[in-house]
Here is the input.
Amino acid sequence: MIYIVHKSQRTELLGRNLDEYVQVATVHGVFKDFYKAYQVLVYSPYKDRAAFDAAVQESIKGFEANLAKLNGLLGNKEFIAGGITWIDFAVADFMQVLNSLSEEYLKPFPKLAEYQKRVWSLPELKNYFSSDKFQQKPINGTAALWRG
Here is the structure.
């Protein structure tokens, strides 16, 4: 068990053992690099919407390597580390964002699309997503050309 905050407040969100913790940390590293590339895409200044749409189409090929890494790290597991951890929430949310931007991103990676749906179908999340508290859009801030 990995401890955070205070040893009396244990959590399994970082992994139940060292192997799971390493898996979470590895995926986090891939995720950070990938998310930075996404931010560059949506926050870069574009001449017009057509230029942005062209950049999105180009990014589909560019993001493929990161999606392949995440797909490989997920493997045949239900969740990234085997059991649910915090990184599952971050990655599943990001997969939903990519799918909102273009369904082409996840087309070659059906396991990632299924994974995203599996995480968002967890009872606590499903209840939240169907409540009035949940707002699917806007996704990005006002400085982004694409806000969702």
Observations:
- Residues 1-10 have pLDDT under 50 and may be disordered.
- The chain has one domain: 18-129.
